[in-house]
Amino acid sequence: MAVLPTGSSHLELTISVPGFASSPSFPSSGDQGGCTVRDLDINQVPAEDEWITASMEDEEESCNNGVPPRKKLRLTKEQSRLLEESFRLNHTLNPKQKEALALQLKLRPRQVEVWFQNRRARSKLKQTEMECEYLKRWFGSLTEQNRRLQREVEELRAMKVAPPTVISPHSCEPLPASTLTMCPRCERVTTTTTAAIEKGSAKMTAATTPTATTLSSKVGTSALQSRPSSAAC
DNA sequence: GATTCGACGGAGCTTACTTCA
DNA sequence: CATGAAGTAAGCTCCGTCGAA
User: Fold this and answer.
1) Start-end ranges of CATH 1.10.10.60 in chain A?
2) Region annotation Disordered: residue ranges (predicted)?
3) Which nucleotide has its C1' atom closest to residue A92's CA?
4) Cα distances (angstroms) measured from residue A230 to each of A10, A138, A214
5) Which of A2, A31, A115, A208 is 20 to 30 A from A143 in CA distance terms?
6) Residue range A70-81: average pLDDT?
7) Which superfamily does CATH assign the domain made up of A1-15+40-52+71-150 to?
């Protein structure tokens, strides 16, 4: 798709900074071949200090009636950055990648999975919105083009009634009006008979004002890559 | 009040495994 | 015993939705 950016670019992607160490502040509890998270149970709920609360007051009143209020996890900037980076490389994760990423981010695999689900869904939504915008603009320009062509047809019809002379833009010589027509697809002026012009005007009306359904069925993804009018006639 | 985003449940699909004729 | 069909469980993605921030 030439018009729309591929992948997730429309959801702001920050570029990784070389030398980033994953969660340097996290205490290492094991020492096994450089893996600092040996004892971390990835299926455990993150520790309390991993939850970012909206305010300090929230933190203070975290235990009401012994039931910890359900807090919404906010990913840290680094976690988000790493997730975005992974998403840019791959929109889906295999189980090993998921596990590794979860370990790196100190999140549960399920959280990584959910993040990718949401990310896919939301980038798709963004893309759909962009396609919608593009179609609106395209439809607008086609409508305008149609108006213009209809006006031209009217003018040509009027000329047919009047003395049939048209001045050529190139040679400034008078041309017979019956020889001028425009191909609705390639917008090239061709020579046809007067009868053909009348047929063509009817076709033009249909061809340049696609309905919403035909437009959306055409568009998919590939149709957005190029204007149909550029096709060979 | 609107928006963002982490989380969840359910539907649908695929794959691996088991059972049975 | 080998084989193919049918059943089942597990795991995945997508979708719609909820609710905290």
Assistant:
1) 1-15+40-52+71-150
2) 201-233
3) C13
4) 28, 14, 18
5) A2
6) 81
7) Homeodomain-like (1.10.10.60)
